[in-house]
Amino acid sequence: MFVRSRRMLITVVLLTATAVASLGAQTPPPPASPPTTVKAPPAGATATAAPTKTKAPTAAPSKTAATAPTSTKAPSQAQKALSVRTLPLNHMNVQDAIRLLRPYVQNPQGGIFDAGQGIAAVTVREDEQTLGTIAQVLAEYDRSPAILTFRFQLIAADDTAGRDPSIAAVDSVLRDLFKFRGYRLLAEGAANASEHSQIQQTMGAGAEQFTLEAQVNDVRVVDGRGTVSITVNLRHPRGAISPANPNPNEMLLSTGVTVPIGQTVVLGSAVSRGSTKALILTVRPDIAGSGRR
Fold this sequence. Notes:
This protein has 4 helices and 12 strands. By secondary structure, it is α+β, with helices and mostly antiparallel strands. The protein is elongated and about 80 Å long. It starts with a helix and ends in a 6-residue tail after the last strand.
């Protein structure tokens, strides 16, 4: 009985081994990359994780971020540091200097002031750049006034043919401007004057006397060349006022012009009486001492 049971056990073991071998031969090969199944470890066991191979990421090429330029705002007028400077005056008076320079003071904390009674200077509070500009402007205008010599000629126009050699320099100009047959010098005069000054003189010959008044307004001279702005009146006094002479100081000509220095300019003409058809006034300004050029 024991031997028989042993034979049956051996037979079962052989059948079981044969069945297992047969099953193994019929099982298809596993796929190339089978999914990994992680089984939970039995209770009380410690799970040991297989080391995971991690592929190091490829570092992207480093790019340097562009840095935007820093915007630097210029300080406003109110933020600029202010300085104080006292500017001496050589020729200009204090009030004229203040009127000239005040528009250049833009800072609300700045200003221009009289330096004090009896002191020929102005005190300015502004930033350094503006102070430099103000000093340049003052140097341009605070200068010794130019002295000019004004030569006036009063010319009579009539129908007498002929040319007067004393007005040869302007004879051709007069014939272009007017249509009279002849021109002759009636009177002439000269006077020295500077900017913002006046001229008054009497011109004429014999009984015909005329009063000349001139206001020198503005002189611009650079290296001996420039212009002068003048206002000129020519009057003809005719004695005392009376019913027969209601206008004893007749205005013949009044004009304002800017004349190039060194050139003769025709100021205008006025209707005359008698044989003289018209009176023509010319002026030539020259820098005093330069002579005629």
